[in-house]
Amino acid sequence: AVARDPVVERIEALKKSREAIILAHNYQIGEIQEVADFVGDSLELSRYAARTSHPVIVFCGVHFMAETAKVLSPDKTVVVPDLRAGCPMSDMITPEEVRALRARHPEAIVVTYVNSSAAVKAESDICCTSANAVAIVNSIPADRPILFIPDRYLGEYVQRQTGRDLLLYSGFCPTHVRIMASDIARERESHPDALVIAHPECPAPVAEAADVVASTSRMASEVRLSDKKTVIVGTELGMIHRLSRENPEKTFIPACQTCDCANMKVNSLERLLWALEDLSPEIRLSDEVIAGARRALDRMLEVS
Ligand code: CIZ
Ligand code: SF4
Questions:
Q1: How far apart are CA 36 and CA 269, in angstroms?
Q2: What ipTM, to 2 d.p.?
Q3: 197 lies in which domain range?
Q4: Ligand 2 midpoint to CA 261 (Å)
Q5: Which strand (E) or helix (H) includes residue 213?
Q6: How many whole angstroms separate alpha carbon 210 and alpha carbon 29?
Q7: Does Acetylation appear among the keywords (predicted)?
Q8: CA–CA separation, 116 vs 41, rounded Å?
Q9: Are residues 166 and 197 located together in one domain of the fold?
Q10: Per the domain annotation, does 259 fall within a domain?
Q11: What is the pTM of this model?
Q12: pLDDT mean across residues, the chain
């Protein structure tokens, strides 16, 4: 038998005694994806968390994602490997700023990307993910102004797709902006037959240079369905682990070697083990924030 990593063995034993499940985002390190019960995008993970009968969820991703799991499963214990794994984009807007924007645009519907704190979601009308942002915006009557927060690049992508004029905010993902259109051009030259996929958090020149602009969940299905043997990947590097595992016959080339989210990489197997041992650090939210964020998430789930 192959010798097993003692940390992995302890994680698996504790998972049983704690009646816990481990959820991992597509951008987590490979070792965490391998011990997880389910790997997916933030919404898939939160919906999985809400369906499971396990009382304890160890959420391996960044803070706002674990908050969403808590909002959808308020009676469960949601722990994370490390509270310092935040998201700079999500930190670019506060609930006070949303209230100030609303005061300036009282007619506007506030559409909030899930990459935001639960407190910001609670100030919003409806949430969206990168997978359903276009459908959510299309569901809003054409005469209503839309305030789209916090990601300006996802917002610009939605504008191009829907032809609607959105009031955009200035947030962005510091990881995805590292990918340049020149990176795509260089890799296309080396791999002329490759499929190029990019995330809508990338600025327009990169999105426009890609064959497919998609959320990580749709990237996974597009790659599975494509007959291209080589894929140039324009998103966070952790995604390549998931894609390689699901498509062992295909070759994956990162568009940019530095598209690595430091926050996603704060989580390690050891910290995951300690979270299971201590059932800490735990995500805690006020009832008010849970109710408000839940309303905006439920509206999204009704539409998509
Ligand atoms: O919502 C998510 O999980 C993120 C941040 C990326 C994606 O497109 O799946
Ligand atoms: Fe935030 Fe970007 Fe990291 Fe996602 S990849 S957690 S949006 S900084």
A1: 11
A2: 0.95
A3: 176-254
A4: 6
A5: strand 212-213
A6: 25
A7: no
A8: 14
A9: no
A10: no
A11: 0.96
A12: 97
Ligand 1, atom nearest to 200 Cα: 8
Of all protein residues, the one whose alpha carbon is nearest to atom 1 of ligand 1 is: 42
Work out the pLDDT band at 171, boundaries 50, 70, 90.
very high
CA angle 24, 26, 30 (to 5 degrees): 75
pLDDT at 85 over 70: yes
15 Cα to the center of ligand 1, angstroms: 26
Counting the structural domains of the chain, the total is: 3
Clarify whether residues 183 and 212 are in a common domain. yes
Asked, for residue 1, whether it belongs to a domain, the answer is: no
- List, for residues 234-247, the tens digit of each pLDDT value: 999 999 999 999 99
Q: Which two tokens stand for residue 19?
A: 């009646």
Q: What does the alpha-carbon distance between residue 300 and residue 61 come to, in Å, rounded to a whole number?
A: 21
